[in-house]
Amino acid sequence: MRRWMFALATAMVASGIGVSVNVATELGTNVWAWVAVGVLTLAAAGVALWAQASSAEDDGERGGSVTNSVSGTVTGSVVQARDISGPVNLGRPEEPRR
Hints:
Blueprint: H1 2-27, H2 31-61
C-alpha cells in the first residue's frame, strides 16, 4: 500500500510540474507561475527522499541486506538469495509432458 502512496504522490507532483511549466511559459513574465515551478520541483525532491527513506525502512523490516560468499571447491549446486518467492529445484529437470 505504501508503494502505491509514493507512486501516486510522485505522479501528482510530476503532473503539477508539467502544468505549472506550461502556465509559466505561457504567461512568460508572471513571477508566481515560476515560483510554482520551483516549489513543485522541491516537492518532487521531497517525495523522492520520502520514498527512498521508506524503502530503507522496508529493508530494515525484512532483515536488512544480506551478503553471501562461496569459497573453496564447490562440487554441487549453490543457491544464494535473500528473498525467494516460489520453488527452487536443484534436481534434474522434469521430462516435458507430451
